[in-house]
Design a protein that fits this description.
binds S-adenosylmethionine, alpha/beta, Rossmann fold, 275 residues
Length: 275
């Protein structure tokens, strides 16, 4: 039995049954159960959050696979409602959520989280799991967290930390560290920012007007799948010298991923109240 199966068996049996309804995905070289494994990690993070006391929860940055939406909606027993906000990437969201059977707990809104179409204090808790990295810049993060604190009296932020405690975590960090540069060089927006230290995450939440109640680090003992991106993306970089330079680093990072695997680095969790 692998680590994922072992930890799924140790999880809430109702959550384990839910996870078994999540489709397996055919996206080599990732393992077919990568999505289930990521959802289990989000579920573990949420054991550090006090979700049950909020009847309406806001999720910022749901992403195309509903990775944190499913564990969040699971935690909210009916009549709890999850408002899932995502700017643009919805491709498999409905299909995956419907497969779990808990779609009725979720209201999805396509919008920019810097301007939420929600009234002040209309939700109990705002959550952003592994989404801080996608908010473009430190100023972008501050804007979004400030907006979350307008609509909710408290927030929970969780994001990977740049800490490699074993070879597989270091392999994840080396591949992940190429993403920001590659997305920029291929003409995309500044996505997948380098991970922030826990102190920096606290600082950003405070800049947004949060009074930090707790900041902790959670160790995760699970494979990760989300640093990897295909070589073809690097090959499409128009500028030759930066392409060759990044390609050389991609080759090293990829061979390390294949050799030692890719593990979740520790995750920073910041819980804050409106200041
Ligand atoms: C890393 S992804 C998905 C994170 C997901 N919660 C998870 O657990 O893996 C973060 C998402 O945030 C979205 N995003 C970035 N900036 C946003 C904004 N200003 N408003 C809403 N969504 C945004 C991106 O489109 C992306 O799909």
């Amino acid at each position: 039995m692998d680590r994922f199966e072992r930890q799924l068996r140790a999880a809430d049996p109702a959550f384990a049954r839910l996870i078994e309804r999540v489709p397996l995905l055919d996206s080599p070289p990732l393992s077919p159960n990568w999505l289930r494994c990521e959802m289990l990690e989000r579920h573990q993070l949420l054991q550090h959050a006090d979700l049950r006391s909020a009847s309406t929860v806001l999720e910022v940055g749901s992403g195309p696979h509903a990775i944190s939406t499913v564990p969040l909606a699971f935690e909210l027993a009916p009549p709890g409602r999850l408002i899932a906000v995502e700017r643009a990437r919805w491709s498999q969201f409905s299909k995956i959520l419907s497969a779990t059977g808990i779609q009725d707990r979720v209201r999805a809104i396509a919008c920019d989280a810097r301007r939420l179409p929600l009234r002040d204090d209309s939700v109990g808790l705002g959550v952003c799991l592994h989404g801080i990295r996608s908010l473009g810049s430190e100023d972008g993060i501050v804007e979004v967290v400030r907006e979350m604190l307008r609509v909710a009296p408290r927030v929970l932020i969780a994001e990977s930390l740049p800490l490699g405690e074993n070879d597989a975590q270091r392999a994840h960090l080396a591949m992940y560290a190429l993403r920001e540069e590659v997305f920029l060089a291929t003409g995309g927006r500044r996505d997948d920012l380098h991970y922030f230290s826990l102190e920096r995450l606290v600082h950003l939440v405070e800049r947004a007007g949060g009074r930090v109640r707790s900041s902790t680090m959670m160790k995760v003992d699970l494979p990760h799948a989300l640093a990897y991106f295909p070589r073809e993306l690097v090959e499409s970089i128009p500028d030759r010298s930066s392409r060759d330079d990044i390609l050389a680093r991609w080759n090293v990072a990829y061979s390390d991923l294949r050799r030692v695997g890719e593990d979740h680095p520790p995750v920073g969790l910041v819980a804050a109240d409106r200041g």
